[in-house]
Design a protein that fits this description.
This protein has a domain of 75 residues. Helix content is 49%, strand content 0%. The protein is built from four helices and no strands. Helix 2 runs antiparallel to helix 3. The two termini are 32 Å apart.
Length: 129
């Protein structure tokens, strides 16, 4: 993901977990609550001898899955790989946006590489002995 040009404006090219948690949407909270409740119910239905322990274990697995899914989704929005109009309004744009290459004709593309230099910088070999 970090080596392809984003389709949307970049807000933070390298967000940490705190940035992702602060930029969660209502939909993300629904995913967290829904997957935790669904896995708890699944564990309760299938855990006949010890329903409470099985349901709690399943809920722990469900909230772990939902947490990783939501963090991945919010990180993609902050990095510009998913639709992020709400985040742009709230946090603003990153000062160095990647350069988008527009091909005039699909049959004759320009040899520009697959990514822009602002996303994947060109290596410098002048500081090696």
């Amino acid at each position: 993901m970090p080596f392809s040009d984003p389709q949307y404006p970049v807000i933070n090219p390298s967000p940490n977990v705190d940035n992702c948690l602060k930029s969660m949407r209502f939909q993300d909270y629904i995913v967290l609550a829904g997957s935790t409740a669904a896995t708890w119910g699944y564990g309760y239905i299938l855990g006949k001898p010890l329903r409470g322990a099985t349901a709690s274990t399943a809920a722990a697995l469900g909230i772990t899955f939902a947490g990783m899914f939501v963090l991945q989704d919010t990180r993609a929005r902050l990095m510009g790989f998913k639709e992020n109009a709400e985040e742009v309004k709230a946090y603003g744009l990153y000062k160095h946006q990647p350069v988008k290459v527009v091909h005039k004709d699909r049959r004759f593309p320009t040899a520009s590489g697959s990514v822009s230099a602002s996303v994947k910088p060109v290596p410098r070999f002048d500081n090696y002995n």
